[in-house]
Amino acid sequence: MMKIRNTAFPYFIWLGIFIVVPLFLVLYFAFTTGDSQTLSEFTFSLDNYKRFLTPIYLNVFYRSVWLAVVSTAICLVLGYPIAFIISKEKAKTRNVMVLMLVIPMWMNFLLRTYAWLTLLGKNGIINYIAGKLGFQELDLLYNDTAVLLGMVYNFLPFMVLPIFSVMSKMDRNLIEAAEDLGADRRRTFLKVIFPLSLPGVITGITMVFIPAVSTFVISSLLGGNKSTLIGNLIEQQFRYTGDWHFGSSMSIILMVFIFLAMALTSKFDKEKEGEGGGGLW
Amino acid sequence: MTKFHAIDLIDISKDFGDSTVLENMNLYIRQNEFLTLLGPSGCGKTTTLRIIGGFEAPTSGKVIFEGEDITKQPPYLRQINTVFQKYALFPHLNVFENIAFGLRIKKTPKDDIALRVAEMLRLVNLSGYEKRDIESLSGGQQQRIAIARALVNEPKVLLLDEPLGALDLKLRKEMQMELKKIQKSVGITFVYVTHDQEEALTMSDTIVVMDKGRIQQIGTPTDIYNEPRNRFVAKFIGESNIIEGTMLEDYKVEFAGKIFSCVDRGFENNEPVDIVIRPEDLDIVPLEEGQITGRVISVTFKGVHYEMEVQNGSFTWTIHSTVMKGIDTEIGMRVIPENIHIMKRSVYDEN
Q: Which architecture does CATH list for A48-267?
C-alpha cells in the first residue's frame, strides 16, 4: 500500500495544483460576489444563480442541451453502423479503416473547424458549386445546423471508437450460439449483438455529449453571434465581461447537470449490462 | 425414422487457404448413438463438428441429415444444437433467459417455456438457479446450463465441442458419467469432440479416431483399444509397445527374435507387420520361463501399478505390473496369443 502511495506522490501534487485547487476556486467564486478584477471584498451570495434562472440564460442552457442531445443522437445513428461494419472486417482492413477515422483527429481541432468556414461560407466551395449548377446562394453558415454539423464532425470518432472496441472484442462464439439456437441474422443482432454492445454505446454517448454540451469553439466559429451556447456564456464572463463569479456559477451548474446526466446513464448501464465495456464511471 | 442415419458425411473436404484440414471424409452417424471424434489438436475434429453444425461450409462434399441434403442450410435452420467449448452463454441474460433463448426465438408460449426450462434445469441438477447471473456460476454449472440451453430445443443431434476441457479432473469424471446418463435419458444422437482418449473410451458407443484430416479408424471403444488398425491409433489410444515383425503364416508371427503363435490370419506369408502389445498384457515370469527376456532399466510408481521399462536387444518394452522388479533385474515376460495384435505395416504414414 505504502509503495503505491510513494510512487503516486508526484501525481497527487499535480492533481492538487491543477485540479483540486482550481475546482475550489471555481466553487468559491461561484458562491460569492464582488469585484473580480481587483480580487477584493467578496461576500457570500446566491445572486448569480438567481440571475441564471431568468429566461435569457435558461433559453441558452436549453438550447445547448438540445443541440448536444441532437448531435449525440446523430453521432449514434451514424457511428453505430460504422463501428459495426469496421468490426466485421478482417484485421488488416479494420486497421486501415480505424486509421482513416482517426487521422483527421491528428489535425488541430480549431483548424478542422476553421476548414468548415471555407466550405460553408458565402464564397465557399459548396456555394460555388451550387452556383455553377444554377442554385441560389445557400445560407449554410452561422446557424444551428452549421453548429450541429461541426459537433457531429468533430465528435463522431468518440462515438465510433468505444462501440468498435466493444464489438471487436465480442466473443464470436456468442453469435454462433445465437444462430445455433435458431436466431437468424436480424434476431442475432437484436437479441445478442446489440445488448452486448451497449457498454460501448453508453461510453460513446458520454464521450460525445460532454464536449458537445460545453463547447464554445464550434458555436462561436460556425454559429456566429446568433448561436450562443452555455459554453460561450461562460467564456464571455471570463474573457470579456470579467464577471468571474457569474462564469463560475454557470460552470458549477453545467458540471452538476453533466454529473447527473452521466449518473443516470451509468445507472442504466449497470442495470442492462454487468461487464465487457469501458464505461467512464 | 430409423431407416436413415442421423448424419451422413459424404466426401467432405475442407481447405483453409492452402492447408487442407479435411480430406475426403466419409462417415455415417447412427440414430441415438454417442459418437466421439477423437484426435490430437489440428486433426480436423472440430472442423468436422462445425461443418455438421453449419458454421463452416465444406469445400466439397455433402452433409446429409436424416436423408436430406443440408449442406447449404444455415445453422439456424438445422435441427442440430451445439454445446460450445467455452460454453458461450449469454452474459447479458440470466440462467432462465439463456435456456429459454431458443424457445423464445421460436415464439413458444410463455407457460410452455417456463415448464420446459424447469424440466431442463431438473435434468442437469440445477433447479432453483433460474434467476442466477451467468457469471456467478462455477465452470461445471455453466457447462450444465450450456447443455440445458441446447437440449431444451429438442434437437435431433447434439454437438459437443470438448465441453469438459476447462473442468478439473474430478469434475470432468463426474460430468462424463452425467453426460452419458443424459444422453441415454433423452435418447438423441450425441456427436462429441475430444482429444482425451480416456474420455472417449468411457463415454462412446462409437469412436472415430482422426489425424491430419483423415479418419484413421472407426469402431467401438473395445475395437479401437484391442484392435488398433495402425501405429497412430495404437499410440494415441493408451500406452502400447509397437514392434516390427514378420507374419510367417496364419497364426504365426515372428518378432523380438522369437516365434509366437497368435490369433490373426489373412496376411501374406512372410509379410512385414507391426505388432502391438499393451503394457498390462505382458506378464512377469521367472527368467527361464520368459518368451522374452530383458533387463529392467527404469521403474516408476503409478499408483495402481508400477511402470517398468525393460531392455531387450534394441527394443525397450513398457510393462505395467503390480509386482515391482528392481532396476538391473533380469526378468522374463510372457504374453498370451489373444493379446498379440497384428497390424498391416504402413497403413499409416507417420510423417
A: Orthogonal Bundle (1.10)
